[in-house]
Amino acid sequence: MSTTDATASRSVDVDRAIPDRAFRTGALAGVLVLTASYVSVLLEVTGVVGGTARLLAVVAVVFAAATLLARAIAVRTAVGTALLFGAVGFGYYFTVTGVGVGTALGSLDRLASDTIAITTGMPLLRMMAVDSWALAFAPGPVFLSWYLAVRRRYVLGVLAGGIALAFLVLSGDAGVATTLAGTVGGIAAVGFGELELRRGTIAQADVLAVLFAAMVVLSLSVSLVPGGTPGPTVLIEGQGTDGSLEANSATAPEETTIAGNVSLSPEVRFTVRSERESYWRTGVYDRFTGEGWVRTGQQEAFDGRLEAPPGETETVNQTVTVEDDARVLPAAASPVEIEGDVREITERTDHGQFHPSEALIEGDRYNVESAVLNASSEELANASTDYPEEVTAQYLQQPEGVSAEFEDATAEVVADADDPHEAASAIEEHLRTEKGYSLNVTRPDGNVAEGFLLEMEEGYCVYFATTMTQMLRTEGIPARYVTGYTSGQQVDDNEWVVRGLNAHAWVEAYFPGHGWVAFDPTPGGDRDDVHYDRLEDARENNESGVDTGASEDVAAGPEGNTSDGPDLDRVEVENAPINVSEPAGGGVGPTEPPSEIPDGALPNDRGPNGSAEPGIDSLDPEGGNGSANATDGDDGEGDGEREFPPSSPETAIVGIAVLVGLAAGAHRTGATARVSRSARLQYQGRTAGPDADVERAYRRLEILLERRHRPREAGESTRQYVEALSGTPSFDPRARRVEELYERSTYGGGIDRAAANEAIDLVDRMAREELPAIGRLYTAGRNGR
């Protein structure tokens, strides 16, 4: 090779190396974006429950290991290493959750059910030790995806990371923006990787476009389901939830977001005959996200009496009659037994609360027995602070980044408290006296508890209960957020009418040796005034559903022997106080037990096996103002029906992706070429010159001949092609005449308009004969025949 040639060759190599490096950089960057998408979801989760620093450290170590081992171990060994990471990680997870590896392996059906529940819509935040789960989940896909990318196995690397992202999409944790970012990153990795491996060509551009469209559409399919994220599918009976997004008190959904302004509903929800006045609990939540609450764990079929609290309790029987379709089973805490047809559809949560597996209908009635805790202030003050590990692990959670100001303000409130009971009472009293009650509030950005304590002057029960729960946890006192209803309007010595405006939220704190004790930090007087006024307005306006026969003649205020719940100066027992002030308008005592209901004699319309068609007509399914949370009796003022498809940039992106994918797929399969050839065959068009018209007519003729016989071979002249076909039985002799006219126009000095028209007409006739009747009519109409 000459010096010049060698120099030129080196120049070409250098020129090619530059785009190769750029393509590799783009491919690796795409894998990083994909990895960051699903790791960011895990970081959001750990940001709620803690463990972000540990997760980042694990991801960094795994990245370094993948980079170092990329040239040292084979692909098969790398796959084994990723699986080992997963096995060790989930072994750690099972140990943390108390299940144990051996127990987990012996309960593969339960593990399969849990996995399917997650991949069909159960958010990760409902898992108990989700921080440990994130540590177990991340290393495998991160290591394998990056290892394969460094090894230039881009497609396999994207597949490994894509599976991880898809899992989080199916659980509902990966939002639209995150999913799009991960999808684009994966496509970029594959695309740039193809360009690198193919030395900078774009021969596979149509394949990449099809892949892009498919990934976008599939990854967003869950987000575009009408009505919201689908509920989880559970294989093991009794582990599912109804997936409802209704008001907290009316449906006790698994997740709830704290809203701003709310409204009140005066409609009657249920009536209760009880041996004593109580708050009627419907939901218990343990995990605070900063913007709302999550109930961890899954619901299981109620198959026997629940365990009563560890302390001294009093048995309280209640008979609840449903007056409006509902998805909850209100009861005084702590419920231990339920009787009636609804028992067949009763499930229990991991927090000891009953919940129906399907909607209750108007007229449903059930008896429920509760073990109400009896404990004096002195007993609670002397309670141990040796909390059970399972209680502290679950009920001391706070989002990461709680401000020092919040901690300092809480410490100042409880500075004079000598024990957890005094601390809880101090926090309760502080919020009652320092904050006002109002339904018209603007939700603060970020952590709602911090915003309410440090910035807001007034709020409603959700804000009070949320803030007190987090203040208690800051002081190391296990606490949880509770929703349900205040006692309602007392219409007889042992009967209460409970309306939507009685929906409420309060707090339960744990005391070793006793159990969960209720505290209500919401100022009762202001709340009662708002609720009384709303009921009177509803009656004056003749609104429907606001009274029963027993309540219509009872006044809404204290003068009518009504109560919006005990005016709790200090709640000292779970759900009903000892030594509290007497309810306004008269006392409440166990003067008459509730009437018993004979088995099988419930006055309702339930079908066989106690089934009922779900249907909540009178409750806003979104809880108002975009919230799944309408407590204090608020049905909310919804923003109307949800649009589908959603009107958003994401919808446009999906639409564009589909069009690009369809176009690229059509090009890849040759469909566009076939359509183009068919269009050229059927439509001649006219040009300014006869020679050009004859050439077009001959090109159309070749399409016909190719369909009937075979394509013209390379090096075969037009005359040779036509002559070779002339000996076949189906050969049309008109083809020879068109070829002759084409030869004369090309090599014989040209032809006139009449000859050009003759060639066009001959091909038109031959083309019409190739079409079915409708095609012939179309062509005839186009040519004016």
From TrEMBL:
Entries under Pfam families matching the protein: DUF4129, TgpA_N, Transglut_core
Residues covered by region (Disordered): 539-648
InterPro entries, sorted: Bact_TGase-like (IPR052901), Papain-like_cys_pep_sf (IPR038765), TgpA-like_C (IPR025403), TgpA_N (IPR021878), Transglutaminase-like (IPR002931)
Residue span(s) of domain Transglutaminase-like: 453-523
Matches recorded under Gene3D superfamilies: 3.10.620.30
Residue ranges crossing the lipid bilayer per the database entry: 26-43, 55-74, 81-105, 125-147, 154-170, 176-195, 207-225
Keywords, ordered alphabetically: Membrane, Transmembrane, Transmembrane helix
The name this protein goes by in its record: DUF3488 and DUF4129 domain-containing transglutaminase family protein
Organism: Saliphagus infecundisoli
